[in-house]
Specification:
Oligomer: single chain
Structural class: alpha/beta
Strand order of the largest sheet: 2-1-17-16-3-4-5-6-8
Order of helices and strands: EHEEHEHHEHEEEEEEHEHEEEEE
CATH superfamily: Metallo-dependent phosphatases
Shape: globular
CATH class: Alpha Beta
Length: 322
């Protein structure tokens, strides 16, 4: 069994009471503990990996010896060997940060994602650093990876054939709707680098996507967000405001701000959310940057496909997985 650094679990009642049990280094609930009628979905996630292919050097820095895609793959393979229903997701900024991107323009990063068999990713601002055409020219290196972004209009660019607002996947009879959100380009991406791609309000896009995915029978709605965790400016969309203003979302897996959350943030939904009075609060999670951590969320559903509880952990990607 792979060993996560932190575990937090909430039942529905404990969710509503805002109480939780946490234990460093504990193992997640073994699959044998589930009732025969229950189903488990495991979501693994990363964000802002920024072309970090190798572990950080042993140079005395705070991240020395951490990360590395070979280690991440070892860890992911172990988890998949333990559980049948696993999704691997990314919240953007795959590119930029090491010479691998400067030399190979994204080929190495996408080949690594293909080797790890990522399912779905959204676009970060740095994924445009080689322009729209430069990005599209690299996508064939990860042919199974699906890209989602609901608030970028890509219809006037070559990305039109590669990016959808959302996808619906099924694992073990559980329907999971996944959509993406990207940050505003202003001040982050030069106009010629996102030519043909335009930004729109992510909150409005999120509401539309969550409603549409629920109407299509999704048991879990997941947003891959590259908006950022939380800002002081109230007029700047972030994951916390997104959870409050788009209550149809069950899970927000964030990026952009490189935030290391030791446990997911639970945001209670308003009574008029229309997603069921007994549905747990929405979850926000983010695992820093550079692949230093791998996030994990286990969702337990009853026989009717109703979410009853979850377990969350993160793994420090270090030499245990060499």
């Amino acid at each position: 069994m792979s060993h996560p650094s932190i575990i937090t679990s909430w039942s529905r009642r404990e969710f509503l009471q805002r109480s939780a049990a946490a234990a460093a280094g504990a193992a997640l609930l073994p699959s044998g503990v589930l009732a025969a009628s229950e189903k488990r979905l495991v979501i693994l996630h990363t964000n802002d990996t920024h072309s970090r292919m190798d572990p950080f050097p042993m140079d005395g820095g705070r991240n020395e010896g951490l990360a590395g895609v070979a280690r991440r793959k070892t860890l992911i393979d172990r988890i998949r060997a333990e559980h049948r229903n696993v999704l691997l997701l990314d919240s953007g900024d795959v590119f930029q940060g090491t010479p691998y991107f400067n030399v190979f323009k994204g080929e190495v990063e996408l080949k690594a994602m293909h080797a790890m068999d990522y399912d779905v990713a959204t676009l970060g601002n740095h994924d445009f650093d080689n322009g729209v055409n430069g990005l599209v020219d690299m996508l064939h290196h990860a042919p199974r990876l699906q890209w989602v972004c609901a608030n970028y209009d890509v219809s006037a660019s070559r990305l039109e054939e590669h990016v959808e607002p959302h996808v619906i996947l099924e694992r073990g009879g559980i329907r999971i709707g996944i959509f993406g959100l990207g940050i505003a380009f202003d001040g982050l991406v030069l106009p010629d680098l996102h030519e043909g791609v335009s930004y729109s309000d992510p909150i409005l896009a999120a509401r539309r996507q969550a409603d549409a995915l629920r109407e299509r029978g999704c048991d879990l709605v997941v947003c891959l967000s590259h908006l950022g965790h939380r800002y002081e400016r109230e007029d700047r969309p972030d994951d916390v405001s997104l959870a409050a203003e788009a209550p149809g979302i069950d899970v927000i897996l964030g990026g952009h701000t490189h935030t290391f959350l030791d446990a997911p943030v639970a945001v209670e939904r308003p009574a008029a959310a229309g997603v069921g009075a007994d549905r747990p609060p929405a979850l926000i999670n983010q695992v820093g940057f550079a692949g230093i951590r791998l996030g994990r969320l286990d969702f337990i559903f009853d026989r009717r496909g109703r979410l009853t509880r979850w377990y969350a952990a993160h793994y420090d990607v270090d030499d245990r997985y060499a």
